[in-house]
Amino acid sequence: MKNTVIAQSGGPTAVINNSIRGAIEVLKTSKEIGKIYGARMGILGILKEEFVDISAQDSREISLLARTPSAGTIGSCRYKIREKDDLIRIIEVFKKHDIGYFFYCGGGDSMDTANKVSELAKENNLKIICTGIPKTIDNDVGGLLQPDGTFAICDHNPGYGSTARNLAINILEANEENKASYTSDPVLVIGVMGRKIGFIPASARLADPAREMPLLIILPEALAKTDSRENLEFTTKKVNEKLSLYSRCIVVISEGVKIGDLGILRDDFGNEQFSASERTVEQILVNYLNGADRKDCQGRARSRLKVHGIARGERPGTRQRREMAYVSEIDQRESRGVGAYAAKIALSGETGFMSTLIRAPGDTYKIIYDKVRLEKVANSKREFPLNWINSNRVDVTDAFVNWAKPLVGGDFPQFAKFKEVTARQICGKYTPTGYRLGGKWPDLPKNR
């Protein structure tokens, strides 16, 4: 019997632990497996020889992984293997602990690490089976969109569905707030995660597939790659178009949109760490809409909005990727399944693979678990399909909605919506005194 090491890398998700659980459950039934260890803080735990004995844990604790968010149980990291010394150390630790199986759960960078370990084991004639388990809220691991409407290699990544559901419900709630406060706060700008790929912000459309809300979705792929000023002016124009129709507007903007100097920091892999940047896209946009760059000597701004009031900003932050309250049951089920399938791949004796989710073509949602060589997904970066971006550049198409809808699980919350049955107006028309000089007070639209 050989022992096993399981590790996690990169940003966590609400369902990452359920993938670990799926692998553990399969491994525990095998007579080929001795101890199952969890490496503390990802690959760093292997380098530092810090293992948690998962085999010694109570079965109840293993089952609770299904409802435990983020990656705190065994930890994660963003450490990039730079020198061969690290790889040699990993092999040394594996030898000493009689490790025959290594599972790494993460995104494209993590698959690169798993692939390096797999290749080094082969070079040293070591029988260590290395297997990847996909995980990323950005949905950027896998191939391009195919003619049948599915994605090659890995249709979607565990973690994305729950983040998409989280955002969609947030938009439903934000719409209620915007309806309540638009006479003073007509614009709400919500910055969301996803780096420079648009799958997360695009999921805002799932809250309103009928397109009844005054909603703008700003994707990195839809705007200019280098001209921040052009992007600000274009977005402001689109905001004012919505204000002309609704007197209010909700803007969902990806953290990776080119809209100004954010003062970005990067991790060991060179990835932008937008949550740690000096400035955020939503704050830059809010400042521009409010005219903070052209305030007078008394500190009064000159708004660029067509209506009275200000734009406010909101950044949900890392709660987007960890909240169990909004977890998708589909995402939860598939995360467990992809972990279990990874264990089955390894126990079959095959090394150097990542388990994947393949969507069957057609109207009925069905997933098939499959595998792909690690080198094919190492450092991979999927692109958001350009033909899923609406021609107006501030929305996504129904094709995206149809693809994403099954991933977010069951029904969303239902909110009250009064009929537009109003009392007859019998007094003369009146403009509140505070709006008589500004010239921006609109006729109140229907409460949509």
TrEMBL record:
Catalyzes the phosphorylation of D-fructose 6-phosphate, the first committing step of glycolysis. Uses inorganic phosphate (PPi) as phosphoryl donor instead of ATP like common ATP-dependent phosphofructokinases (ATP-PFKs), which renders the reaction reversible, and can thus function both in glycolysis and gluconeogenesis. Consistently, PPi-PFK can replace the enzymes of both the forward (ATP-PFK) and reverse (fructose-bisphosphatase (FBPase)) reactions. Keywords: Cytoplasm, Glycolysis, Kinase, Magnesium, Metal-binding, Transferase. Its main location: cytoplasm. Substrate binds at T136, I137, D138, M193, G194, R195, E255. InterPro entries: PFKA, Phosphofructokinase_dom, PKF_sf, PPi-PFK. Non-allosteric. It is an enzyme of class 2 (transferase). The record marks K135 as: Important for catalytic activity. Diphosphate binds at G11. The active site is at D138. It holds the Pfam family PFK. Its EC number is 2.7.1.90. It is found in: Cytoplasm. This is Pyrophosphate--fructose 6-phosphate 1-phosphotransferase. The gene is pfp.
